[in-house]
Amino acid sequence: MKKNYTAQELNSMSNDDLARLGTELDEVTVAYRKERFPVPNDPAEKRAARGISIWLVIGIVAAIAFLGVYLFWPWQYQGHGDENLGMFTLYTPLLGLTSGISILALGFACVLYVQRIIPEEISVQRRHDGPSDEVDRRTVTALLNDAWTTSTLGRRKAMKGLLGAAGVLAGLVVIAPLGGMVKNPWKRGEMTYHGDGTLWTSGWTLHENGVKLYLARDTGAIAEEHSGPTGTHFTTAGVSRLVRVRPEDLDAGGMDTVFPLAAEDVNDGDLYDPQRDVYENHMHSIHGPRNAVMLIRLRTADAERVIEREGQEDFHYGDYYAYSKICTHVGCPTSLYEQQTNRILCPCHQSQFDALQYGKPVFGPAARALPQLPITVDEEGYLVAGGNFIEPLGPAFWERRS
What we know:
Layout: H1 7-12, H2 15-25, E1 28-34, H3 43-72, H4 85-116, E2 120-125, H5 134-151, H6 157-179, E3 213-218, E4 224-228, E5 231-235, E6 242-244, E7 255-262, H7 279-287, E8 293-297, H8 300-303, E9 320-324, E10 336-338, E11 343-345, E12 352-354, E13 360-363, E14 375-377, E15 383-385
Antiparallel strand pairs: 1-2, 3-6, 3-7, 4-5, 7-8, 8-9, 10-11, 11-12, 12-13, 14-15
Helix pairs in contact: 2-5, 3-4, 3-6, 4-6
Keywords: 2Fe-2S, Cell membrane, Disulfide bond, Electron transport, Iron, Iron-sulfur, Membrane, Metal-binding, Oxidoreductase, Respiratory chain, Transmembrane, Transmembrane helix, Transport
Protein name: Cytochrome bc1 complex Rieske iron-sulfur subunit
Pfam families: QcrA_N, Rieske
């Protein structure tokens, strides 16, 4: 078989000739090939095209529905008893349903097109090494053109438009949620339990604004059911998700997770009011991304062996130490405390920190000590923040200096 062809010879060949030559040069043997619809205007072809178009339309509609839900559906948190609770609970399921239908419909359309429109073909090719020469490049182009022609997609303008629209919209379904993650990490907003929106702040930063912050633990309380003249309903009035902690609430060698609780949001002890509704603010504190703190009460013998960090000698209260629960590796919760060794463990990547040496990392990938929160006790005997953290919480970022 001739393998060297001049440019003039190649130019004189039709696309079919080049495609045939390409299969021969690539040592491809077409063992079987059959047109799906050899007879023009076959009703079966129209039915197949109609079925594929229906799936593409379904994909387009579902993708548009996804974008509509993502952009306009009420997504802000709603608790039990809130007016828009039903709408809020449907937000995530609707995103999953519409995105799934969009992507699956596009996939079904592609599979059906291959199975019902593109000719059946079985080809066998021998592999060979080495770069391609001019004749190989020309014949490959011809083969691609032949594939486009035999697919018949070029003459199916309506289906081609639907396929393009479905593909673009399915891509937007995947890409659009990423837009919600793009933000300016240094754009300051109002200081709340979530900080002011920058990586330097947390709910504990409220202390710098003169807010008294109690160390409060999560009770896990949820909305309560009430029955009245108007029927049965749920309410969070009088429900305290966070309650203040006293030193005697923690046994020696024990640990508890605590969150910042502003004085104005206290609803426990002698300040309890069954009519007050502070549940939402409590949940904001719990959901603050850098708010969780490990409150540890060391055994007296262990507390005597503590090595304080320079400049933080007065951050503890007696045998009580408070360390950020956000691992300095990649931000997982350091939720394990081993009282025999006084080590704080992160279950994600097995980093370990020494509670007797200012939360210093002693094992694993974490490279920085856990930030320590200054704590003290107020006149009523409750543990409160004595100040804000003096270093950023969580893992490293470019602008972080420590």
